[in-house]
Amino acid sequence: MQRLLIANRGEIAIRIAGAALEQGIQPIGIYTPEDAESLHTTVMECLPLLNSSTYLDGAAILEIARDRQIDALHPGYGFLSESASFARQCEEAGIVFVGPSPETLELYGNKWKAIEQARELGVPSLAHRELSSSEDAGQFMEQIGGPILLKANSGGGGRGMRLVRNASDLEGAFLACKREAESSTGISLLYVEEYLEQCRHIEVQTLGDGENIYVVGLRDCSLQRRFQKMIEIAPAPFLSNEIEESLKQYALQMARAANLRSLATYEFLYQPHSNRIVFIECNPRLQVEHTVTEETKNLDLVGLQLLISSGKSIGDLEIENRKSAGFAIQLRINLERIATDGTIHPDSGAIEELTFPGGPGIRQDSHGYVGYRMPSSYDTMLGKLIIRGRDWPSTLRKARDAMKQMRVVPVGNTALLRAMLARPELEEYRVHTSFVDMHLSDLLKSAETLEAPIRRSEAATPGAEASTIASYEEFHDGLEAIRSPMAARLLHLEVSAGDYVRKGQTVAIVSAMKMENQLSSHCHGFVEKIGVNEGQELETNQIMLLIRPVEGGEESEEEVIQDLESIPDSLAKLNHRRQQILDESRPRAVAKRRKRKQRTARENLKDLCDPGSFLEYGDMAIAAQRRRHSEEELIRLSPADGLVAGLGTVNGTLFGEASARCAAMSYDYTVFAGTQGAMNHKKTDRLLQVVARLELPMVTFTEGGGGRPGEIDVPAVAGLDIHTFRQYASLSGVVPRIAIASGRCFAGNAALFGASDITIATQNATIGMGGPVMIKGGGLGNYRAEEVGPAAMQYSNGVVDILVEDEEEAVQVAKKALSYFQGELPASSSDGRMLRHCIPENRRRAYDMHRLISLLIDSESFLELRGGFGRAMITGLARINGMPLGLMANNPNCNAGAIDADAADKASRFMQLCDAHGIPLLSLCDTPGIMVGPDAESTALVRHAARMFLTSASISVPMFTIVVRRGYGLGAMAMAGGSFHSTVFTVAWPTGEFGAMGLEGEVKIGFQKELAEIQDWDAREARYQELLKEAIHRGRATNMAAYLEIDSVIDPADSRTWLIRGLKSLPPNATRTRRPMVDSW
Q: Of 98, 119, 146, which closes a domain?
């Protein structure tokens, strides 16, 4: 390689020339008439492109190459760098194209093909579709039910790209993308993809020799505006090793499949809160931001390109063990301004001052100089400032300091870059691709403050007052001028002299940096004069046309009303599409539900949520079976893809909207038996992200058959990489989650049911981890669905917390359950004196603990949980004086109140639930202790009973204990949080009796020898009763209080007073340690 033609301009042409000279290669450049003053024309021999040729004119460039006997050509970035046909023409002319092979460029130069390659290789990507019209984009937008991104098939730099959130903007965005794409690369093909919110833009830089691939490093390009990068960083900061490795493997997989030769950058979006990674495109060329990778790896990427193109292999380069050192930040110095609406305005005029900072670890790549005038036809980037440091904090500090030394007049974007670097979010890199756009107003205010001193200095410079705008001589009184907001080229005039225009009507379209801007009229009136021509270069503030305003131009009130009442065609189509998913449009599906004596998913959610509060997410979703059914058929077969989900309020009239916030979703059994399809899962994951971010309680109706087969639109083998179950489980301990099962609930649906905090089932429910088909498929027999896991069985074994008659009752119970996590209610209670008569005088006689509870707490406020399981323990939610309270009590009618394995598990999980959500605990103790005996020990009681001690030691919510009768041994301690002194208070009623163990057992063990020596049975029994009476007297409540082992003995009628005062004594908004999980058992 002797003579290298550089088919590019500006700073990158200078950069490539330097790398060529270092290897002894003669660089030769080219330039267009607009670039005759560019610095790259002075650092090497440069030849002009004549006859209006541009850097996209491959034929003219090859003609120069042949005339000058060029043996290699470097395309740089942009222009022809991704043109497979141009690379092939170079090869046919015997010229080495410094870049990937034509085959690789054909693959990656078309972004659609790149995404298809990713799908075939199993690399995750966004939902996407090729476009031939804006109508195609509209259909895609309806399908995904969210914002979309229109993108050019070729090129980069944010050109030919538009984010569309409203269908009404599609037509204009589509046409603008086509024009920008064609002007940038000569190719106007577009495609559309879903838009992913709140994500980072991560690049993987790779280098290949056609056989071997080397991952050079990662970069983060999230700081961008309108998809144009502003600040790039290497390596990507605050990225986990797991995510980094996944990104590298995806890039390696694709590069190997493409037999990559030379450089290519694989670009991904990474959504931190979901850990979702998606491939978006590959740039098979040198990138603008290659500098930061060079700085951290101490490599010359352009030099490596030249070596690979001259036949060297990866092994020959000896770079594979090169490790990253520190961080590097690149700042793009652009001569442009950004308006508050995001519009870019190039700075016009010559550069009056240009000073880059210097020092160790500071590099600048630029083609600017004092006196240089940037042409409006090209990118406004004047250069790049690259800062290298030993770690992220020091590199950020160094970049901030360097930008203080950077001085450019016109100022351009330097002040905005300083404002961005100053943001505190950069310290821990809490940014995303929309960060700049979201904070643009604040950033521009900061930038204005930072650039004020430079502006004053600029104003003092001789000649700085010279105006570039057109003369005012043509003005007459009352005329309004339409001016060019930037240095630009006039593409189209949308009006002619004499035309009537309305306020807000587009009158012209101008182009700067290959991005289009629409200019609108500020008033109603007639076009008086047009002073410019299409294709003309405009200066900032140049007057383009004059409008004579007219009186009464505003629309009349009647016209406005008529417009408001009319339904645009696009909205009518949307309304029709939405109507198709509603119950009214599906009478057969509704009839099937009635036949089963059940309600529809939408009816249940309507009953749950406050009127008018439900906001549905993902209602446009359909099953991922487009290759099996037409879109119209899928809309009919799979409305909302079998999942109705969204946000609303529950119990708003009781607690107010702020406390009533809630998320709710219901699987729709009328759609593929409520199974979980691909879009169904995606919708669930989206809702769970919102739930986690907003910390919303959640109610889920889980009827359905689990995973759905036949989703052939999704490239997957088993689908075991979905996030639904992990995301739902991660909400444990964060927000209360209530599940309702009615009808059949199997597999994945049952997994969500089981992972919930409170489970409610109707009498007709059958719940299991596998349905009849799976059981039969596993060779385990034939069963009807009703036999697999009937609700009565699941209630008695503890899977179901609350058993109800039907869905109507289930919804009412769910609302009541949710209320305990929402706040206080007005209180009403029974006469407390009735509590004095709840405990029988006969200490051996059982009594009804449920009645005692109902008399103690607020009327009708007890909601028992797991009432069919572990019956020796009663657990549930209640209220005292309107305040929520968790209540657990021994049940003297089961095991005499002794704690068995099931009771211990039940109490332990209940304590976790209350602790997770800050609900104080009340324990009503009447237990002879922990159950004993061979049968009890066969249930692993030692471990199960110990759970109560372990759990109570880990909770941070306050506990109150009232011993209503027996408080014996370890069982009583377990009922008081592990110790009588670990509670806020432990008190007893006068009927309380205490002992280190059951008093009868204590006497028999402690006096075993003495009793055995008494031969006469009657005498022995008399002595035993005498000793027992002494033990009872010694263990009486007042004696315990005298020794301060309990806090007091109280009148049962005063129990509510003690509890109310205890609850009101708690510190307001006390900081607690968040419980990481509420056990499912």
A: 98
